[in-house]
Amino acid sequence: MLNNFLPNEHFSSVLEIDPNHLKEKGVKGIITDLDNTLVAWDVPDATDEIKDWFKAMNDHGIQVTITSNNNEDRVKLFSDPLNADFIYSARKPLSHAFKKAQRQMDLKKDEMVVIGDQLLTDVLGGNLAGFHTILVVPIVETDGFFTRINRKIERRILNWMRRKGKITWERRDQS
User: Fold this and answer.
1) Among 171, 128, 137, 107, which residue's Cα sits nearest to residue 33?
2) Which of 7, 25, 45, 161 could cross-link 135 (Cys pair, CB 3.0–4.6 Å)?
3) Rounded Cα gap, residues 6 and 23, in angstroms
4) Ramachandran region of residue 4, left (φ > 0), alpha (ψ -120 to 50) or beta?
5) Rg of the chain in Å (alpha carbons)
6) Separation CA 67–CA 121 (nearest Å)
7) Max CA-CA distance within the chain?
8) Where are the domains positioned within the chain?
9) Type and span of the H or E element at 127
10) d(CA 162, CA 170)
């Protein structure tokens, strides 16, 4: 059961995820979380670095769909300037939004990855839906109310995984 929370890969930041690395794995599409994955949860717009990351993915023929549990206004405001497809009120970890993104991109599961900062929504949902999952460290250590609850549960799961030798990396918020 707890293995469903185990990501396939881990990076400190989405900016470390290189399009060449993804292309070597046959990746043609990304389903990415928004808040605390691409920008801090309280930052409305993409940073220049994130704009460059989206451009690099696009230049390598990799589609990106932003999939967020947040509301339409928040996700649309962020996504539109990037010309990025998006799904709001995704209800992750339920699989509906992941499958919808896959249909929109018209790709096979093994041609896609799910990127996010939370085990309980992004990684669990991506794994249950059958995708390759990538966990990134949250951009900021502050969160909304429900995410703070999730982080406490995540710390317990990550500590268990570390004790069992399933992960070797450390997260900034594990101290």
Assistant:
1) 137
2) 7
3) 22
4) alpha
5) 15
6) 11
7) 43
8) 2-167
9) helix 124-128
10) 9
Q: Six-digit token pair at 106? A: 């018209």
pLDDT 10s digits, 13-56:
999 999 999 999 999 999 999 999 999 888 889 999 999 999 99
Name the token pair of 154: 């995540």
State both tokens at 111: 């041609």
Three-state DSSP state, 133: strand
- Could you say which architecture CATH assigns to the domain 2-167? 3-Layer(aba) Sandwich (3.40)
- The two three-digit tokens of residue 107, written as one number: 């790709």
Query: E strands along 14-71, which residues?
Result: 29-32, 63-67
30: its two tokens? 């990304």
**DSSP per residue over the chain, as a string?**
-GGGG--SEEES-GGG--HHHHHHTT--EEEE--BTTTB-TT--S--HHHHHHHHHHHHTT-EEEEE-SS-HHHHHHHHGGGT-EEE-S--TTSSHHHHHHHHHHT--GGGEEEEES-IIIIIHHHHHTT-EEEEE--SSS---HHHHHHHHHHHHHHHHHHHTTS-----GGG-
Say how far apart CA 137 and CA 158 lie, in whole Å. Answer: 12
Q: φ and ψ at 114, to 5 degrees?
A: -115, 130
